[in-house]
Each structure stands twice: as C-alpha cells, then as structure tokens.
Amino acid sequence: MVEKINLSFEEMWERIMACDSKYDGLFFTAVKTTKIYCRPSCRSRKPKKVNVEFYHDIKAVEEAGYRPCKRCQPEIELSPHLEIVRNIITFLVNNYKQDLKLKDIAESVGLSPFYLERLFKQETSETPRTYLEKIRIDKAGHLLKSTTLTNLEICYEVGFQSPSNFYKAFRNLKNCSPSEYRKGLQNELD
C-alpha cells in the first residue's frame, strides 16, 4: 500500500505556487470552479486559494468528478519506475527529520541501496541525499515563514545534524542565509 505524504494544506499550496516538480505524483491540485486537476509543477495560471482541494490519489480526484489538465497531463505516468520513485519520495518527505542512511531508504521500498540510488538518480537526476536536503530546506523555509523558532531550532527540527551543514545547504538552495530569508519575508509584509 502506498503511504500518504504528510504535508499541510499550506505546504502543498507553497509547492504549487513554486511549480515544484519534486512533489509530482505525490498529491494533485483540484480546482473546484473548473473541475480540473493538475500536478504540483503545472505552469497553468494559479487558482484562488479558496477554490483549491488537494488529493493524494489520482483515483480519488477522478471519483470526485475532476478531469485531468490538458497542459500537465497528470494522468500519464512517464516512467515504469514512477511508482517506486514516488514511494521513495514519500518515505523521504514523511521521515525527513530522521538521520536517514541510504540503507534505511532502500529497506523501506525493498531495493538494494546500490539499485535504489541508481534508479532514483536516473529518474530524478538527483541522489536521494540531495533530494532529502531539498525537502529539509523546503520545510525550513516554511518554518521560517510560519513560526518564531530560532534558526538553530529550525536546523534540528528539519533533521540537520549540524548547523554548519544547515546554513550551507540553505544558502546553496535559497541564495541567502535563513536570517536573510526571514528578513526578506518580513519586508514583503511591511
């Protein structure tokens, strides 16, 4: 059985606003007014937040009466390994706080570590480790936006083992420090 991804409505909303392809296939965005559903990475015009529902399963969204978007074609699976990759990503998103080793990820989906890494890189162009790092930084960005936790508290909350790795990864992915990111968000609100 496929496990559901543990993301709040706000986190899924942030992912569709960013057209984030990392979450394609893990959830679908359904627009109540048009009765159309899309992938999180769809480049179509974004709907109003009040008109959006999220579904974790393509069958559920279609049973609710939605039809697939003609632009992103969420009903078409592009790879025979998509289900395995989807399970790996779901595991990473649901367990990002833990100190994960490749062996742990491989055991969760029933593959050898070598084969898992090769397959994952072939399908996503990234290693599971770099993918996990991006998920952690996405979570950190959400916490910087929605909480008053300190940078150090956020570092450990999202699963980093050392602050220096957290700051380095954050700067590499967001092109600023966590403090600059939070300050930029506050300036947008002013």
From TrEMBL:
Its cofactor is Zn(2+). One of its GO terms (molecular function) is methyltransferase activity. This is AraC family transcriptional regulator of adaptative response / methylphosphotriester-DNA alkyltransferase methyltransferase. Keywords: Activator, DNA-binding, Methyltransferase, Transcription, Transcription regulation, Transferase. Pfam families: Ada_Zn_binding (PF02805), HTH_18 (PF12833). It is an enzyme of class 2 (transferase). Its EC number is 2.1.1.-. SUPFAM superfamilies: Ada DNA repair protein, N-terminal domain (N-Ada 10) (SSF57884), Homeodomain-like (SSF46689). GO terms for biological process: methylation. Residues 86-184 form the HTH araC/xylS-type domain. It comes from Clostridium punense.
